Sequence to fold (271 residues):
Amino acid sequence: MLQFLILCLAAIQTTSSEGCKGILYDGRNYKEELMKADIYKPSSLAIDYKTNTLYFTHIEQTGDAFYKTSKINLKDGKFTNLEVNNGFSLDVDQNNHVVYIGGHKGIYKYNEKSNKAHLIVPGINAWNVFYKNVLYYTEFISQTIFTYSNGKSKPFEELEGIKVYFFVIDHEGYIVYSNSSGVFGKKKGEKEVLYKEVKSVDEIREITLDRNGRVFVLAADGIYSTVNKVTKSIDKVAEIQDVYGIAFDNNNHLIYSKENSLLRLVPNKDC
Fold:
């Protein structure tokens, strides 16, 4: 009888493990859901949570445009190209449902209701944009971070003199940023903390927030999160390789882009 029970238990464990051939993310098993195929290197993903719309840039070299800015309605999957070309970075003002698009000609403000975009910060090469009460952006050549408010730009005093590539402020007001040396964090008025050392600026591909304000860092070797401000450490939460951009939908499911597709992770019900 004991031998029979052991054999039954082994069979159950084998069946369970065979059904769990998904992706381990944040300690749980997920499976990929294809959102859009045949799209080249989509990146800088940003979601308007009220309209459930995903905005992003992707490479589609046509005429003078190299990068196209597009959106997907996450409810029905409708795909639309926006009129802004050569945008590199996007973020959403969630309170006013306005999309900011940074590119080599400056920063555009896009209104979904009118489906129009107009240039609000001309004459700059904006590499990264982030919105939290005011608009923040980094200038590509100098890697300097600025704030834009009431029609005026000025250097962000908290990081003045520090080169910045990607940048967010979490729900506690904690600043997380990257440059060619690594990923850093700091409280306002305090010294920065090194969370992850890198050998080149290309190792960090994006820094973003989930719906709860938790910081996620997209690196060449995987996705990191859990910025521990006490132990001054950061943990890898997924081993997913060759990802170009990440975002989180209304249900806080991870959306990410590969070389030719947009994918969403959903819980694996087989596990």
